[in-house]
Amino acid sequence: MQSFRLKTMIIVLVVCFILIGCTPIDLFYNPLPDHIQTIPNTVQWVFETYDYQVDTDGDWKTVTRTIEDGGGDCEDLAILTLWIVRERFYIEGQMVIRTLHSTGALHATVLFDDEHYDPTTGAQIWPPEDMIVMILDYDEVMQAVRWY
Predict the structure, then answer these.
(1) Res 57: pLDDT
(2) d(CA 135, CA 146)
């Protein structure tokens, strides 16, 4: 019985991919509601949907783990935001590691078309007053967490 279910599921996935170009991730988990159609709305949605969690080990989570955990630290929420925007809007953003001028702490934000956003606050950063330490392209970020 399980073998039949598995075969049926695989056939459905293949047919769906061929007919409409969706991936298994699209079929089983598309986290962004259809009514959200802009990058600022996406950043706000990530902020409202996922909790900021203090990082204890310093590792970056995969998108799957951030979703399963219901949140993550600034890097994890930035990674999730980058992935959602790429999957939904086909726009590859960048992760910006910056030093907060108010505290001196490192903080990760995202950059799309010269617009800076902070998924931990849901806001666009105007102007980014903090010192930028590093900017990582989408592929560099995803390779660092070993998941596309």
Answers:
(1) 80
(2) 18
At which residue do the structure tokens 């909790």 appear? Answer: 51
Q: pLDDT tens for residues 26-45?
A: 544 555 677 788 999 999 99
What percent of the chain has a predicted confidence (pLDDT) above 90? 53
Contact 43, 122 (CB under 8 A): yes
Give me 131's structure tokens: 């010192």
CA-based nearest residue to 38, from 95, 97, 84, 94? 84
* Residues 57/85/121/30 CA torsion (nearest 10 deg): -80
Q: How far apart are CA 71 and CA 81, in angstroms?
A: 11
Burial of 68: CB neighbours in 10 Å, binned 0-12, 13-18, 19+: exposed
Q: Which CATH class is domain 32-145?
A: alpha beta
* Region(s) of the chain under CATH 3.10.620.30: 32-145
